[in-house]
Amino acid sequence: MKDVVLWAGAGQIGLAIARRVGFGKKIVVGDKRIENAQAMADIMNNAGYDVTPVEMDLASRESILNLITEGQKYGEIAILISAACVSPSQASIETILKVDLYGTAVLLEEVGKVIKNGGVGVHISSQSGWRMPQLGNEIDDQLATTPTEELLSLPILQPEHIKDTLHAYQMAKRCNEKRVMAQACKWGARGARLNDIAPGIIVTPLAVDEFNGPRGDFYKNMFAKCPAGRPGTADEVANVAELLMSPAGAFITGTTILIDGGATASYYYGPLKPQN
Ligand SMILES: NC(=O)c1ccc[n+]([C@@H]2O[C@H](COP(=O)([O-])OP(=O)(O)OC[C@H]3O[C@@H](n4cnc5c(N)ncnc54)[C@H](O)[C@@H]3O)[C@@H](O)[C@H]2O)c1
Known about the structure:
The protein is of the alpha/beta class. The protein has a single domain, classed as 3-Layer(aba) Sandwich (Rossmann fold). It has helices at 12-21, 34-45, 61-72, 93-112, 137-145, 165-189, 205-211, 216-224, 234-245, 263-269, and strands at residues 4-8, 26-31, 50-55, 77-82, 120-124, 193-199, 256-259. It has a seven-stranded parallel sheet with strand order 3-2-1-4-5-6-7, with helices on both faces. It is globular. The N and C termini lie far apart (59 Å). Bound molecules: nicotinamide-adenine-dinucleotide.
């Protein structure tokens, strides 16, 4: 038996992280588009890793449980890489909330029931949620602790409160951060750690869709005017994930680390500040 890495979302960010933490372990990668999971498995198996692709829909608890069961065939679940999502240009408000908000909450909850002692997890949220104003303690508590099956019924998530798909994505990512905090307490009781990374614009197919989507100019302006003056790479996100998941990160859990080239700083105090 081997330690098992469960990896949801066969995208570039997940790949970069899996390469850092997955060698010598069994990696089970799930994606709604099985061809994406298969492509990642091919790349990694040809580079000495041990990867099995699985079709998985993050919007479905049954599908998430199936991913976990598949992983447990090979050993104990030691690592979670949670990097599946749909972006604002890829899906409707309803789908974004179902996949990114509800699905992530279920994934963190279900893996938290089986993660081994000493296990680690990292979820990928987004800097996008950081541009939204504070929602207040009451709503933060609701997002953090409402039972997963009731989450999508919260008043704050009803259509009259969600302006557009970007707002839905930001709400999902804010919720992710709060769920990671709440779940880290449960993971801690099992001797495991869970953290979140909020990346800025990272060049991946998802970001390329955004560059070519209705908010393309907005995105290009954002990286041009952030202190770093460029988008980031998946490998730079993996640098942070590696720290969070290594013994050097043993005192870090339940937190979100922003890695955005300073875009959020510029949004509040620099040239990206909205002109009212
Ligand atoms: N790329 C960026 O600029 C950026 C910025 C901030 C945050 N992020 C976050 O990073 C994470 C990874 O994104 P990426 O850039 O690697 O994107 P990506 O498009 O390369 O990968 C995302 C993967 O998720 C899969 N997916 C979509 N819906 C799914 C579902 N219902 N069930 C299972 N899998 C599903 C897609 O098929 C795709 O393979 C996402 O959570 C994203 O929000 C990305």
